Amino acid sequence: MGGTKILGAAMASSLMVAGLVAATAAPSAAAGCVIRDGVSSTGTETGRNPTRFEYTDSPYLGARYNSCTDKVVLYYGGYTNTAAGWHYNVRFTTGGQRELSPGSSRKWTFNNPGGTSLSAVVQLCKKGGFAQRSSCTRWSPTVRVSLR
After folding, report:
1. N or C terminus: which one in the chain shows less Cβ crowding within 10 Å?
2. Taking the C-alpha atoms of 123, 129, 130 and 134 in order, what is their torsion angle to the nearest 10 degrees?
3. pLDDT tens for residues 21-57?
4. Which keywords appear in this protein's UniProt record, sorted alphabetically (predicted)?
């Protein structure tokens, strides 16, 4: 019996090399991964995967943390008429702000900044002219995602 098993494995290996049989997938390392979506105590839920949050006069914001990649992805948008001169501002409650393009994906992926959680808000702005301030929407609801 044992010889048959070894011969079968050798034959399967030969067929795989020849491209006649597909390899059996190994158990996924992702089985131990944890995906955490952001939450908010204010605003309206809109969309899924992950859930996004917005006010009627703000962009939406969603967040997702993946423990296997140790990355955070922010999903932002909600406005379709974003021609040249428009941008999104993302602000973190721990300080710091980043200006993002309104591009088609409206996703920003970055490394886990550390800590136990991350909270952020987003707004859409149109750049002002020379010596003029930008004109912006209201900030979105604060979205918090657990990083541990």
Report:
1. N
2. -20
3. 333 333 344 568 999 999 999 999 998 899 999 999 9
4. Signal
